[in-house]
């Protein structure tokens, strides 16, 4: 009798990056990717993507609306390293160069069903006064390593 291999389960992620609130910026786009443990593997769909550029809505909220679809399926033998979605939002600086406006991440929900997540965004900040001065004078904003490699 042959030994049975480890059991596998599937995780299907279907949804969208709906919108964002960046009151001080306009004309932004969003990149996403999934990070996960070594026992996880994508089986269908896209692990990463980039949205269109959007402008603020004309309503009171002034939201940046993408309605950017996400559809990916993963398989794994255990829940360790449960997938997270990582978002990066970019937009033009005063010279028209794309610079990071925010990073954020959240775990994919653990339970089935419809879920709505609000992801707090952050921006790397220079650690010394000299770096801050250089940042202001050269328009050289700090960025994380994963943001620079996409």
Automatic annotation (TrEMBL):
<protein>
    <recommendedName>
        <fullName>B9 domain-containing protein 1</fullName>
    </recommendedName>
</protein>
<comment type="similarity">
    <text>Belongs to the B9D family.</text>
</comment>
<keyword id="KW-0970">Cilium biogenesis/degradation</keyword>
<keyword id="KW-0963">Cytoplasm</keyword>
<dbReference type="GO" id="GO:0005929">
    <property type="term" value="C:cilium"/>
</dbReference>
<comment type="function">
    <text>Component of the tectonic-like complex, a complex localized at the transition zone of primary cilia and acting as a barrier that prevents diffusion of transmembrane proteins between the cilia and plasma membranes. Required for ciliogenesis and sonic hedgehog/SHH signaling.</text>
</comment>
<dbReference type="Pfam" id="PF07162">
    <property type="entry name" value="B9-C2"/>
</dbReference>
<dbReference type="InterPro" id="IPR010796">
    <property type="entry name" value="C2_B9-type_dom"/>
</dbReference>
<keyword id="KW-0966">Cell projection</keyword>
<dbReference type="GO" id="GO:0030030">
    <property type="term" value="P:cell projection organization"/>
</dbReference>
<comment type="subunit">
    <text>Part of the tectonic-like complex (also named B9 complex).</text>
</comment>
<keyword id="KW-0206">Cytoskeleton</keyword>
